[in-house]
Amino acid sequence: MGIVLEHAIDEFQELIDKVEEPLKTTFKNAHQGYLRETLIRFLKARDWNVTKAHTMLVECLRWRVDNQIDSILSKPIVPSELYRDVRDSQLIGISGYTREGLPVFAIGVGLSTFDKASVHYYVQSHIQINEYRDRVLLPSVSKKNGRPITTCVKVLDMTGLKLSALSQIKLVTIISTIDDLNYPEKTNTYYVVNAPYIFSACWKVVKPLLQERTRKKVHVLSGCGKDELLKIMDYTSLPHFCRRGSSGSSHQTQSVDCFSVDHPFHQQLYNYVKHHYETQGQAEPAKQGSFHVGFPEPVAERVEMAKTIESKLHKFENCNGLSKPVDDRKASP
């Protein structure tokens, strides 16, 4: 790393050392001992402008304090049937690790319906996965590999992507904005697989709106992407939707796909949250009650992308003679 960049990191750290104590406390939870790596992520997100990175990080820390993010891993989604509903309609999981040790997050973009719970439960679950990744999973794999591992890769499955995705744009924009502002640069690479024509058409108009740094991270693979992904991970780490064309007889296949609530990752996460709630000396919550988090204002890039995608999908809707109104009530905060 060059002298100029090292100087920027040192300057940034001096500024953060001066923040008030509550922000310092939550920052320790956020960086988990990987202080410089965390500072670098925020600097990258603001093109190495120290002043802008400082403002971004301070706002992130205030968001964490104001919304009690440090305690979100002791707030289970109950009853367990509701958590199952969330998992069945917000498709995300870990299928394994790359050969470099990075967690492989699989996301079912096309088949996620977000229609079995309120927006607050989906946001709560998303943040819990982020926090579990950053505070439990990544420190563990870093220790195992003997070096800092602070990012992951994501494989986005576009199977089933339809015009009904229009109703999910608001919620997806909320979640993406939370990630942009509070968990920047946590994804090393995005791999898009099983992309139908509707995705290809939207991607052509969205791609120019992305920052160059983001564009370079996105790789749209042919078909299920198996051949390309096998260059960076073993077969056993491939998401189930990338295994098409394999006989299965020569490979050990997963009995439970990584989206399922019964997958070990989701069982470990849920039990971890439930255990931390119970250690506070309280019984399991009798009532349903989501953990409400303040939704940040979407960044301009996200707003523009959402509008562009919405416009493109409306054109598809009109071309196909579909006039049924979109019900997005559950995707509205």
TrEMBL record:
SMART domains named among the record's database cross-references: CRAL_TRIO_N, SEC14
InterPro entries: CRAL-TRIO_dom, CRAL-TRIO_dom_sf, CRAL/TRIO_N_dom, CRAL/TRIO_N_dom_sf
PROSITE patterns on file: CRAL_TRIO (PS50191)
Gene3D superfamilies reported in the protein's UniProt record: CRAL-TRIO lipid binding domain
Domain CRAL-TRIO: 79-239
SUPFAM superfamilies: CRAL/TRIO domain (SSF52087), CRAL/TRIO N-terminal domain (SSF46938)
Name of the protein: CRAL-TRIO domain-containing protein
Species annotation: Brassica campestris
